[in-house]
Specification:
Layout (H helix, E strand, L loop, with lengths): L9 E4 L11 H9 L2 E4 L2 H10 L6 E3 L5 H13 L4 E4 L11 H10 L4 E4 L4 H9 L6 E6 L5 H10 L6 E6 L4 H12 L4 E6 L7 E6 H9 L7 E5 L11 H13 L4 H12 L3 H9 L6
Parallel strand pairs: 1-4, 1-5, 2-3, 2-4, 6-7
Antiparallel strand pairs: 7-10, 8-9, 8-10
Length: about 280
């Protein structure tokens, strides 16, 4: 067995996403033996450490203090300390500021060692029933503006690989609606919540059915969304190509509504999305 932890090494330690029994023996051993644990939320991680009788001191490391913490952690590593990085749940570096710390360590030639653990994205994917041989992890969509979210979804419209997203419960309904408008209401989706916990739930159906399902149920818990990729038989037109087709139809005398309906039928793309593109086109003389 390895003599870890080694001095001057950063360990990325996976922690349970729900069920404490998913904690690995190696993860417990590393957390017991390192000089310090850099945690996203020291109070949350403190409960985990108490459960496994780990008394290693913690330091906070999160998105609000990373700029000041990174130099401090790097300095301690250079002085020979072994430090473990953990997130609230799952693998550090996935949808959290762990990436920036790893990048800083790599730049200083500090060894970085992953201690594998569970992740919500992979757990949901393998249980979804959707293709898992090729997939894309998108994490959280932008929450600053609806236009940025729609822009990102539009860029993924023709993606044939399975798509994985994280979403907060208060934005789930909006996200499902936007996905339906861009991907089409018949696109398959699996919503996963409370993974590995007592009330674990995986729901499967179309985006249209998902909208109806959550219209009568209050979304609770963090969600992982697994969305089927676009079918290869589906015409994969770029936004520029769609606009060009719309311009030709408008020049033929069709209204924006008529042109959008006709192009939607030809491409199997959402009529509402095409109509939004039609509105962006200047009047054709």
């Amino acid at each position: 067995m390895s003599s870890e932890p080694k001095p001057g090494t950063l360990y990325l330690v996976g922690t349970p996403i729900g069920n404490l029994e998913d904690m690995t023996f190696r993860a417990v051993r590393i957390l017991q033996a390192v000089d310090a644990i850099a945690a996203e939320d020291t109070r949350h991680t403190g409960k985990l450490l108490h459960h496994f009788q780990i008394t290693t001191p913690q330091i906070s490391y999160h998105e609000h203090n990373q700029k000041s913490r990174i130099p401090e952690i790097v300095r301690r590593l250079q002085q020979g300390q072994a430090i473990a990085l953990v997130t609230d749940a799952g693998m550090p570096g996935i949808s959290d500021p762990g990436y920036e710390l790893v990048q800083a360590c790599v730049a200083e030639m500090i060894p970085v060692v992953p201690i594998p653990g569970s992740t919500a994205a992979i757990s949901a994917l393998v249980a979804s029933g959707l293709p898992s041989d090729r997939f894309v992890f998108e994490g959280f969509l932008a929450n600053s503006s609806s236009s940025k979210r729609r822009e990102r979804l539009t860029a993924l419209q023709a993606e044939t690989r399975t798509l994985i997203f994280y979403e907060a419960p208060h934005r789930l309904r909006q996200t499902l609606q936007e996905m339906a408008e861009v991907f089409g209401r018949d696109r398959q989706i699996v919503t996963a919540r409370e993974l590995t916990k007592l009330h674990e739930e995986l729901w499967r159906g179309t985006l249209e059915a998902a909208i109806a399902h959550y219209a009568t149920r209050e979304p609770t818990g963090e969600f992982t969304l697994v969305v089927a990729g676009a079918e290869l038989s589906q015409p994969l037109l770029s936004e520029a190509a769609l606009i060009a087709e719309l311009q030709d139809l408008l020049k033929q005398g069709l209204s924006r509504s008529q042109a959008s309906r006709q192009l939607a039928q030809q491409t199997s793309l959402p009529r509402r999305h095409i109509y939004q593109l039609a509105l962006s086109i200047a009047d054709v003389l």
